[in-house]
Structure to design on (783 residues):
């Protein structure tokens, strides 16, 4: 059962990493236009280079 | 994808890429300073729309960058100071989309929506904590013993306590503000349940007890936050869009003062001022025409579809639109004294009569909250009386509070409302009021206004075929020279029929009368009947005379809104009674009623008549849906059970109505009635489902059989059932 001493902190850390990533995505406005983003992926525009 | 060659306007793509990159970077910097134009584009719906709009707008000189937001259906444009929304709207129309201007100043207020972002943060924390605690709890449920169980409980407590403190705040705050003024709301039992469950679990953990409800307390927070978040999102979206639409009209007037012409806010106009009204501009105040001749469109005020002639001495009312020539107006009444104010009074009376509508959720909560408090309290007292053990009694009472948690109830209504209003928004309907859908579901009578609602308020040339090819060619040439709506409709119809205009020379518009020109040696005229020497008829018409020949009549009908006919048929097939109520003269109203198959119609109705008609239907016990766009409809809109107005409607009409129709098509109105009914059915089902769960779980909890595992199962399964049921509305 000593393995728990590693596994529990590791699982909390990984979960916390996910939580941090989610906070980042909210702060950088990734959810402002979910519908548009799901469609933009289908368009050929800016496939060669990113939109400046 | 990268292998495909994309043809570029220039031979060397890199050459034009370099300067654009610089320009766009500059635009981005400028954009941050607040140089933005916002357009609402209700018809945008696909990937092709995005790239058509963005490329099309970016090709307009002066536009630095354009970005479509498909979720909100709007385009945000960064542009040079000279570029205005009025210039961009025709460009967007050329691309094939209808556009309205939105007030960019509102953007900062609504774009971020900090309240829902805050809820999302708390939701994320609760979700993270719930998953971790659940993992630990599964270990406990599957038989962890003694020291291991205590360790897991302690770790759970370490995660749960800060989570409850952070994520539970919206509930605590709302409960506290209710308690402080001596009321209770749904958040009181929720907060009590959370605090009690966490508190007793912490105590149990300290005593190495067997049961801890940390998982239940946290997942309760999580599920309820979902409901709260959905609620917030849909309300914020409706509010922001409605507010932006309301900001469309900036009321200004051109006053002729001692120092020449100046632009002033309408509020600053006084009786006796002299105002200049250019063609296409709305009359800012009541007054009498001093100089100039023109035609006036009063459709928004009275519903009349025929333009009215106005010369010196004619009285104009606020809200009418000047069509052809510039006028100067001596203001007789402005602001509060104007005829508009009379309508505002009518609206106030009608709104007072509507009263407050109690939503289903409010009605349920009204009996739910006291019941839960009573059951939990009685459980505590009962167990204390039987067993005499305060710790055990408190534990069981906490379990009762957790099990009766209004999770399903908290999710039941917002989940359905979000799904339904999302579906309607995609169809182009904006729900402004939270209870509008519920009221819409109860509707049994629909009252329509004519001009601007069932029709577009734009004339359509009817009898081109009845004339000789030469007459049509001459008329097309003359019509193209005028901006009068009839002339434009005629020119458009001729273009559509492939008619090439005759070579008419010396074209001259006589404001208020028509257009005159010279064809070879003959004088040709297109305009009012009297001006070309004809007897005016009953229908809307423009007359053409070539030289000394007999005048010929081009007739017009008001163009129907797209899908008006199927919409009326759909409403009737749903068993709704349909009425047509118009301020227009009898012949056009009768013709339209017959064309659409509406048996009940009234013409020549004054604003007071419309409001009284709706009030009478209401007195008969009917639930009225009013659809209208004009000032003359405003009182009726405010008085009806629920009301819809198109985005093209006047500010006042949109403010008075509960639902705004963003696109030109009427089809969503019939669909909205169906969606509203199914949404309310789902809400009822959801409330029944959550009550069934409670009926099963509460007795078990009261008897003390509610283990943490059982509570978790009951809570999650009821929440999931309710959410899945709500999602059925989307299709």
């Amino acid at each position: 059962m000593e393995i728990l001493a590693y596994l529990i902190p590791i699982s909390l850390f990984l979960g916390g990493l996910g939580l941090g990533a989610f906070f980042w995505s909210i702060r950088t406005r990734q959810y402002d236009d979910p519908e548009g983003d799901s469609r933009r992926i289908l368009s050929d525009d800016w496939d060669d280079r990113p939109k400046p | 994808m990268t292998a495909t060659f994309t043809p570029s306007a220039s031979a060397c793509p890199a050459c034009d890429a370099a300067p654009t990159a610089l320009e766009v970077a500059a635009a981005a910097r400028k954009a941050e300073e607040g140089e933005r134009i916002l357009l609402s584009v209700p018809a945008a719906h696909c990937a092709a729309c995005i790239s058509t709009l963005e490329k099309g707008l970016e090709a307009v000189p002066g536009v630095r960058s354009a970005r479509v937001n498909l979720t909100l259906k709007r385009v945000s444009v960064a542009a040079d100071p000279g570029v205005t929304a009025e210039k961009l709207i025709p460009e967007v129309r050329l691309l094939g989309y209808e556009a309205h201007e939105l007030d960019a100043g509102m953007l900062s207020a609504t774009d971020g929506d900090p309240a829902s972002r805050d809820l999302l943060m708390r939701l994320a924390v609760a979700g993270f904590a719930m998953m971790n605690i659940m993992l630990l709890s599964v270990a406990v449920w599957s038989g962890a013993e003694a020291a291991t169980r205590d360790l897991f409980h302690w770790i759970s407590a370490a995660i749960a306590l800060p989570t409850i403190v952070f994520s539970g705040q919206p509930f605590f705050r709302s409960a506290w503000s209710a308690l402080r003024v001596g009321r209770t709301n749904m958040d009181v039992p929720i907060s009590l349940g959370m605090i009690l469950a966490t508190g007793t679990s912490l105590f149990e953990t300290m005593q190495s007890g067997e049961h801890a409800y940390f998982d239940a307390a946290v997942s309760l927070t999580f599920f309820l936050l979902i409901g709260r978040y959905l609620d917030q999102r849909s309300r914020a979206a409706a509010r922001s869009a409605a507010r932006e639409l309301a900001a469309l009209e900036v009321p200004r007037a051109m006053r002729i003062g001692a120092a020449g012409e100046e632009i002033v806010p309408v509020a600053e106009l006084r009786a006796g001022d002299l105002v200049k009204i250019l063609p296409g501009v709305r009359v800012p105040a009541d007054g009498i025409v001093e100089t100039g001749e023109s035609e006036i469109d009063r459709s928004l005020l009275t519903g009349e579809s025929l333009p009215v002639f106005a010369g010196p001495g004619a009285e104009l009312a606020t809200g009418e639109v000047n069509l052809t020539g510039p006028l100067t107006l001596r203001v007789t009444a402005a602001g509060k004294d104007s005829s508009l104010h009379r309508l505002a009074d009518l609206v106030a009376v009608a709104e007072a009569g509507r009263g407050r509508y109690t939503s289903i959720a409010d009605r349920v909560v009204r009996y739910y909250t006291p019941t839960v408090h009573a059951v939990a309290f009685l459980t505590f007292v009962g167990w204390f009386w039987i067993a005499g053990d305060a710790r055990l009694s408190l534990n069981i009472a906490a379990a009762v509070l957790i099990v009766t948690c209004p999770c399903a109830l908290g999710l039941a209504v917002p989940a359905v409302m979000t799904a339904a209003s999302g579906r309607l928004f995609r169809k182009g309907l904006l729900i402004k009021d939270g209870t509008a859908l519920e009221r819409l579901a109860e509707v049994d009578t629909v009252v329509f206004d004519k001009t601007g609602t069932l029709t577009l308020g734009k004339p359509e040339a009817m009898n081109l075929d009845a004339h000789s090819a030469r007459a049509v060619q001459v008329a097309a040439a003359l019509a193209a020279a005028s901006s009068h709506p009839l002339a434009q409709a005629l020119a458009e119809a001729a273009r559509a029929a492939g008619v090439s205009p005759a070579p008419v020379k010396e074209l001259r518009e006589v404001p208020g009368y028509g257009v005159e020109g010279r064809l070879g040696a003959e004088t040709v005229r297109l305009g009012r009947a009297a001006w070309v020497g004809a007897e005016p008829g009953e229908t809307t018409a423009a007359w053409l005379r070539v030289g000394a020949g007999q005048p010929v009549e081009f007739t017009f009908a008001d163009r129907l809104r797209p899908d008006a006919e199927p919409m009326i048929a759909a409403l009737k097939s749903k068993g709704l009674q349909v009425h047509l109520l118009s301020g227009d003269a009898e012949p056009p109203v009768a013709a339209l009623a017959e064309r659409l198959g509406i048996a009940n119609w009234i013409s020549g109705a004054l604003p007071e008549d419309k409001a009284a008609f709706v009030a009478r239907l209401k007195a008969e016990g009917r639930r009225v849906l009013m659809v209208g766009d004009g000032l003359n409809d405003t009182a009726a809109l405010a008085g009806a059970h629920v009301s819809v107005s198109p985005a093209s409607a006047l500010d006042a009409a949109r403010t008075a109505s509960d639902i705004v129709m963003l696109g030109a098509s009427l089809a969503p109105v019939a669909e909205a009635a169906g969606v509203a009914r199914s949404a309310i059915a789902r809400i009822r089902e959801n409330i029944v489902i959550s009550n069934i769960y409670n009926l099963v779980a509460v007795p078990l909890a009261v008897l003390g059989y509610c283990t943490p595992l059982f509570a978790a199962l009951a809570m999650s399964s009821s929440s999931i059932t309710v959410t899945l049921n709500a999602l059925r509305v989307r299709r």
Chain A has a mean pLDDT of 82. Residues 6 and 12 of chain A are 10 Å apart (CA to CA).
